[in-house]
Amino acid sequence: MNNELQPIGVFDSGIGGLSALRHMMDVMPDRRFVYLGDTARVPYGNKSADTVTTYARQCASFLLSHNVCMIVVACNTASAVALDLLTHEVTVPVVGVIDPAAAQAAFVTKNGRIGVIGTRATIGSGAYEVAIVRHAAGRNVQITSQPCPLFVPLVEEGWLDHPATELIAREYLRPLQDAGVDTLVLGCTHYPLLKPLLARLMPGVTLVDSGECAAHTACSLMTSSSIQSDLGERLTVYLTDGAPQFRPMAEVFLGRTVATPSIVSLDTHTTLGT
């Protein structure tokens, strides 16, 4: 690809995708990005597959209207249920977070016991199990999946090292510990902020960040660019609802300050495939 002047589009159900964006901005320092957070309809993880698919199509359509050269679906739930559809409906490359993370997990595991944590929708889809088995290429793997629905609100509340978060994490992680996993896929882009806690509770276990894996996959599809600019020029952020906590949380996710986002509506935006 050689679309040097076109930005890369990234969307998520809310602000969690900023953790994936952080890795993308690190590995592609000469690229511009358009980020869309569907904060008016977050979370996607407790909604039906049909609803998530509709939302994902609207998000993709919005990004395409900004002349992006690639779309990164920085949402595990949307990647699980809508990625194949988006791939067939849009004319630019579409990268999700599940397949890159599954490939990495299958590569790094030593004992073949892999854990996956995510939202109820992501875990319920079985997408990680299918992808990990495919990338294991005939090797015997045992996958233990665990929904962790309370992690997202805890992260957005900023309770990254709170006793309540540790208590809940211990409960969620117990089946994975019992299964003896040596690799744990963080199947939600909010979860990397809990890495210190998860690493402490799962000593010796390799943590696979789905957003980081997707960033490297996206980078591999791009050619180098001559663009060199500061963050304000490199990143444009859109949200579907005003979120007072967005800027301080964005600084936590991105590790740097972010300009005030623009608020947009997707309800009246053209939906792909209609």
Précis, in short:
The protein is α/β, with parallel strands linked by helices and 274 residues long. It has helices at residues 18-27, 49-64, 76-89, 98-108, 120-125, 127-136, 151-156, 163-179, 195-201, 210-220, 231-234, 246-254, and strands spanning 8-12, 33-37, 70-73, 94-95, 113-118, 142-147, 183-187, 206-209, 235-239, 262-263.
Kindly, what is the distance between the CA atoms of the first and last residues, rounded to a whole number of angstroms?
28 Å
Strand arrangement, major sheet? 4-3-1-2-9-10
Report the structural category.
alpha/beta
- Mean pLDDT value: 91
Name the overall outline: globular
- CATH top level class name of the largest domain: Alpha Beta
Tally of DSSP β-strands: 10
How would you explain this protein's 3D organization?
By secondary structure, this protein is an alpha/beta fold. It has two domains: 8-96 and 214-263, 3-Layer(aba) Sandwich (Rossmann fold); 98-210, Rossmann fold, CATH 3.40.50. It contains twelve helices and ten strands. It has helices at 18-27, 49-64, 76-89, 98-108, 120-125, 127-136, 151-156, 163-179, 195-201, 210-220, 231-234, 246-254, and strands at 8-12, 33-37, 70-73, 94-95, 113-118, 142-147, 183-187, 206-209, 235-239, 262-263. The strands form two sheets. The chain has a six-stranded parallel beta sheet with strand order 4-3-1-2-9-10, sandwiched between helices. A four-stranded parallel beta sheet has the order 6-5-7-8, with helices on both faces. Helix 2 (49-64) crosses helix 3 (76-89) and helix 4 packs across helix 10. It starts with 7 loop residues before the first strand and ends in an 11-residue tail after the last strand.
